[in-house]
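Reading a protein record of the kind used here takes only a little practice. Think of the row as the fold of the chain written in a discrete alphabet. With that in mind, consider the following protein and its fold in token form:
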Amino acid sequence: MDVLIWVLAIAGAGVLAFALYIGWSLYRRLRGQHMARKPFSDHVAFMEPYVRVSYPPGDGPFPAVLLFHGCGGVRQVTENYAALAVKAGVAAVIVDSLRARAISYEQALAQVCTGHRLWGRERAADVYAALELIRQDKQIDPQRLALAGWSHGGWTVLDALTLARMQTPPDGLSDAPEQPFKGVTGVFLVYPYVSGPSLAVRNDWLADIPIEGVLVERDSMASEADASVVFSRAREHGASVSWSVLGGVTHAFDEPDHHPESALRYDPQATLETQGRFSDFLKRRLTPGVA
């Protein structure tokens, strides 16, 4: 009997120690203390090879939209929206956060899409870096910039805006520019993740940049109910936020090349509708008055 009590006590102590370790690790991650921090200039140099620009025909400087992919990385959906931007006379800037970190598609599905790796508040550093890089491009008009994010990319953009309001560098950075969103005239979000660890759930973001969103009713991966609550609160606090909700489609409805085992489905009609909204967003925010 004494041996059994001793064994149970040891087991209990082990479970308690493990729980404390998990709690401490989560606490550190929520405070951005789980990774070493480096200068912003280093991250700009790190990201430069993974920021790809497609220019419209003609002479610049051009307005630009920076595209932030979902948790699976740069897919056909990213390329499709980039092509729409170029067709509209806007330079398309694809920021590949996964290739920069040597994360494959399969690894991304297992680690990034499940929240085990690369939270939005860490990837927000890529937003700051990409904006810094694109403002240095002589073919780009630094006063006519926009951001667009899908799913994890939406989480990332909102966290970046929130960190700017908090005047706190993204995870992994020791410093950040004073005005990281200088020249940004609008944000377009498609089924953004705005739940759980998203900073936007509990904090306000920069209120002077208009945000337009497309949500999915009963979204299995990015709750439209959570996003609507956060958007409504932000609007009450003075932010310019508008959004619509699509029914009868799944998360990532505009991605034509889902993983074969995925339950998500491509919807051509909803895709055309959302692409039309994206093109209209670019026209209003970046090319007003252009036929």
